Amino acid sequence: MEVFIEYSALFFFGATSGWVVELFFRRFVSQKRWVNPGFMTGPIVPLYGFGLAIFYFFANVIPWENFSSFLWLNRLLEVLAAGAFMTLLEFVAGLIFIKGMHVKLWDYSKRPGNIMGIICPLFSLIWLACGALYIFLCNEAFKTGATWVGEHWQYFSLPIGVFYGAMVVDFAYSVNLATRIRKAVSESKAIASWEKIKVSFKDHLEEKKQKSNFLFAFSSKKEEFDLMVKEAMTKSKKDYEDYVAMKMAEKQAKKDAKKEKR
């Protein structure tokens, strides 16, 4: 029970704090607006929760010191393994939604070296950096906190149970939304981008001077839902086509510049 509560608390902290970090990143860096991050409706991104629990497991359970007599090599293997495992987890999670629901939760299609738009070298390096940061700077603090929570598990079992109950309901609601989106685009057999549709819904309501719902970003009248999804898909397709055309023009410009130099 103690171990279960420890990892449950780590998952909760990672999932909620990751949501907060991504919320502010989108507001002030990437999208310049307040957008509810992730697949879920509530303030939680499960991938970050799994990430923190995995980093904790790698740092405290696996005997890396037995791999070689070189401390630096063992630490390097630990960091590389943590980053690689998180990249694999991100790929599997993204693939499940693409194959099972025809929905892409995140989209790295415009990133160099991406695979199916699910993973890319840049974000693999970010996971690697997060793993190194945790292992070298944060592990002892989290170990102390998780141990204390485990020792006093009787005080945390109820709130953690409530959290997981709410998360299951939230996940079921989000899956239902994904199913509705899949049905709306079933004729085109296209892969719907969860985040782009979410932003498109917000833009659509703002254009009509209607107030959008921060948590329930897809809330709309039933008869408008399919129309808004198709509108978002058309916009997303055009944006990608424009991006491809821009890249092709850049390549052609570089070729022309090389010819002129010759």
Helix content: over 70%
Low-confidence stretches: none
Query: What is the overall shape?
Result: flat
**Class computed from helices, strands and strand pairing:** mainly alpha
Strand content: under 5%
Trace the largest sheet across and list its strands.
Answer: 1-2
Elements, N to C (H/E): HHHEHHEHH
* Distance from first to last alpha carbon: 72 Å
Number of distinct helices: 7
Average of per-residue pLDDT values: 86
Total strands: 2
Structural domains: how many: 1
Query: How much is the radius of gyration in Å?
Result: 22 Å
Largest sheet: 2 strands, parallel
Question: Any overview of this molecule?
Answer:
The protein has about 260 residues and is an all-alpha fold. It has one domain (about 1-185). The protein is about 75% helix and about 0% strand. Strands 1-2 form a two-stranded parallel ribbon. Helix 2 (about 45-60) runs antiparallel to helix 3 and helix 6 crosses helix 7 (about 220-260). The longest helix has about 40 residues, at about 220-260. The protein is flat, with a radius of gyration of 22 Å. It starts with a helix and ends with a helix.
